[in-house]
């Protein structure tokens, strides 16, 4: 294993990539504070995607923050990042210490309840580089993240709860896709932050329009 993480956790991916789950990375009172302030203070927006010739609203709210110049294209639209807030900076510092990697951007998603979701995709955009390390923080309602191996169709369900940190690394994005399915069980909101390192500027649409 060639991981550069300082976590000694077991790799949850049975093959073709690395997945580490640090449960309660933030203990509950701290996670509560982050959930409340992120929900209040981030510039949550609805996004439209162009799919089969029409514009459809994505079933969640989103916000994009990062260093100036770390432009990122998602939902078919080129997004200029908003400048880091103080709390996103603090979260970034904590996550960087564990991952031993610098992040220059974060994509925030707000799932208002179990009717909000994210479609199956891989975070394999070329501006993330060949084997991106992506750090994903969850706050609020527990939701299931489902991984699907592209060739074998094996699925792997990971429950993400309040304060958890999930790290995706190695070749994972080449071989596995992931989705956050809708569920009747989730009545409360969930916030997810994925810290990323943008290494090149895109010249063409790079995120699949099917999310
Ligand atoms: O909400 C999640 O846990 C998944 C988010 C995700 O896959 C993404 O932002 O690319
Ligand atoms: Fe993703």
TrEMBL record:
InterPro entries recorded: AlkB-like (IPR027450), AlkB-like_sf (IPR037151), ALKBH3 (IPR032854), Oxoglu/Fe-dep_dioxygenase_dom (IPR005123)
Keyword Oxidoreductase attached: yes
Annotated GO MF terms: dioxygenase activity
Name by which UniProt lists this protein: Alpha-ketoglutarate-dependent dioxygenase AlkB
Cleaved signal peptide residues: none
SUPFAM superfamilies, A to Z: Clavaminate synthase-like
Pfam families, sorted: 2OG-FeII_Oxy_2
Record Gene3D superfamilies: Alpha-ketoglutarate-dependent dioxygenase AlkB-like
Residues annotated as domain Fe2OG dioxygenase: 102-199
Protein keywords: Dioxygenase, Oxidoreductase
């Amino acid at each position: 294993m060639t991981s550069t993480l300082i976590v000694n956790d077991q790799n949850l991916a049975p093959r073709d990539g690395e997945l580490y789950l640090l449960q309660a990375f933030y203990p509950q009172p701290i996670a509560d504070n982050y959930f409340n302030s992120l929900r209040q203070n981030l510039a949550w927006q609805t996004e439209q995607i162009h799919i089969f010739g029409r514009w459809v609203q994505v079933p969640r709210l989103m916000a994009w923050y990062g260093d100036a110049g770390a432009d990122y294209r998602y939902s078919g639209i080129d997004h200029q990042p908003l400048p880091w807030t103080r709390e996103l900076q603090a979260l970034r510092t904590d996550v960087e210490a564990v991952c031993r990697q610098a992040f220059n951007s974060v994509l925030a998603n707000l799932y208002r309840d179990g009717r909000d979701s994210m479609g199956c995709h891989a975070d394999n955009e070329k501006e993330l580089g060949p084997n991106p390390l992506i750090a994903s923080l969850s706050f609020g309602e527990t939701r299931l993240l489902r991984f699907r191996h592209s060739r074998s169709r094996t699925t792997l369900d990971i429950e993400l709860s309040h304060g958890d940190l999930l790290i995706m690394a190695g070749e994972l994005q080449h071989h596995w896709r992931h989705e956050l399915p809708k569920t009747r069980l989730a009545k409360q909101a969930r916030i997810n932050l994925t810290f990323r390192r943008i290494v090149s500027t895109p010249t063409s649409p790079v995120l699949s329009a099917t999310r």
